[in-house]
Amino acid sequence: MSRENADAVFAAEQAHLSETYGKLEKIGRDALAAMDAVAAQAAEDKKNMADELAVNFATWDDILETHADIVAMNNIIEAHDMANSVQAERLRAVEVLLREPYFAKIVLQFKEGQPAKELYIGSAGVSDENYRRLVVDWRSPVAEVYYNQTMGPTSYVADGRTIRVDLQLRRQFEIEEDRLITYFDSDVAIEDKLLLASLARGRSAHMQAITATIQREQNLVVRHEDVPVLQVAGIAGSGKTSVLMQRIAYLFYQHRGALDPTQVYLISPNPVFGRYIDRVLPDLGERNPEILTWEEFLSPLLPEGRGVGEGDVPLSRLRAIDEAVASFEFARTDFRDIVSAGVRLIGGDAVEKVSAKFANLPAGPHRATLMGEELTNRLTARLKSLAAQESTHDEIASLSVDEQLRLFGEVFDPQSDEEARSLAMTYLEEKHADALAAMASMDWLNVDRVAARLLGREGLTSVEWVYLKMALTGLGNPEARYVMIDEAQDYSEGQLAVLARYFRRAHFLLLGDPNQAIFEGTATWDEMRAVFEQERGAVSSCRLMTSYRSTPAITDLFARLLPEGEAMEVASVQREAPAPEVIVCAGAEEWKAALADAVRVAREAGGLTAVIVPWKSDAKRLAKTLGDAVSVTVLGEGDSLPGAGIVVVPLALAKGLEFDRVIIPDASARAFPETDLARRRLYTTLSRATRHLTILSNGEITELLAH
Ligand SMILES: Nc1ncnc2c1ncn2[C@@H]1O[C@H](COP(=O)(O)OP(=O)(O)OP(=O)(O)O)[C@@H](O)[C@H]1O
User: What keywords are assigned to this protein (predicted)?
Assistant: First the structure.
């Protein structure tokens, strides 16, 4: 393209941008004003309706009429809410777009002879007052053409129909608010220039959305059909986590209004990682799902005081539980009293009686549910009878005035027996809240006792304990619709089986890298597949083979650690950077000096550097070794990743994160012996670096890196 031509294009695009920006601002202002007006109108209507509403129960006709008035009133209020949610949605889209109205333009010819259509694609979609699309949402069907990266004849699918189009222009933009920085036109040999520009900018303290530059192989995962289980294997830095976040945003769009963020779970490797990713979705105008670590998931399901412990449980042990439960019959000792505030509200004997009533049913969720319902009724009856007792009323009367006010909003002074009972019930429900909670979690069942009789074993691991409870009671979350497991290679078969069964109706997305399995006893990729096949039937799969994080030199280095054959397929996106540095030191003093030097160089260079050590215990020791020479911070579970500086990070916490520079303090044969586990741990460590990598070795370097 000639210079003048390019300038003319730039000027025209800047003009379009300025115009769009103005329109967006206006839409935002109008939406706010409309919301304001709706709120004022709703208040007015409510007041008028309440004034007009003549509640009349005199005759059946009056009752019907009153009912119709109330329905009409509710409909009006609902209509206000609807109007407001439509406006709120527009406002949310505008807020996202005002930061960057769009990132691409596509020109599509739908039918020969007809004028081509220009579409601008952004992180959200919005139409003007004439319902003309100002910006098309990146998740809308037509935007797929942009991500397919095929110029000329191509197609997309909308409402199950394949629509053929001719992609005549694919233009990418870098934009800040209303300012066009630059644009790139894609040619036939498609190279994503926006991607290169984005990678050249380097990393930041929080993970960023990749909406504008999602690559073709990644897009297949983001827009994958909604299957029960999708297993995605990707090499280090191939964008698994990024894709996962975009997929969640995509699902929210597809199920707009029908999918609540509380129905989506993201199981993350550690709390630092959870904080690293928690801005991506809000930046896209979406809410975060429930982000939980394995510990955070499991702890609330366990009895108080019981630790989460080891996750490494062979599947055979869990299958043995299923088999044993199938032919199990309860005994009195399997049941426990429900005691609260020193009062035995339901005795184990009573539980046994209820159990006997359902003896014709096998032990399992159905029977437990029926027992639970009956026991809950008994508990309610028990509380009701306590609520009628004078001693309870005396107990309430002796509470402090403040306490009475807190409970009832007034001082306890019932005017009738009925009122006394009702207030007493409020009091008792609070006093015995623990009993109600125990009932809800079926604590009348003594899981440990059952285990001892059923399996002839005490001291179940937490994984077995929860699995047994699920088998006996149906414990689980049937509301969850999607569960995403990141770094899925780090879970044991037992852990995966628990998750698969607990979220029994959810669709699963399992993302991981078999070569980054850094713990003992975790499931292999095929074992993971087998667990989900058994629990859910079919498992679909995808692969991601391009590394976006690391420079080619770093990628080459870690790809050398991959099993034969796999390394051949790995690609990385080109950009300039220095080669990794390897420093082998003969003695401790030399090593210490070299390490201090490397840290100093990193500090001067700026950005964020991680000194990645194998274990938590190494981190403190290393900080001490460096001592006064250079001060460094040790990153703990409770910390967030800083934007810049030097942090010492144990490998388990560095999982999923990335740094401008990585220093490996000791890659000696001692630290990384020639085992499969050490190979995977080294691969994971090396691949945290985006551009600079310094490898030191205290003594002979590991064989894994020797050639
Ligand atoms: N399509 C893309 N456009 C721009 N940046 C991308 C793209 N895909 C990945 N990246 C960048 O590459 C880096 C690595 O991505 P991400 O952390 O999602 O990879 P990962 O596969 O989860 O890595 P790992 O398994 O090694 O932890 C991030 O900085 C991310 O922003």
Answer: ATP-binding, Helicase, Hydrolase, Nucleotide-binding
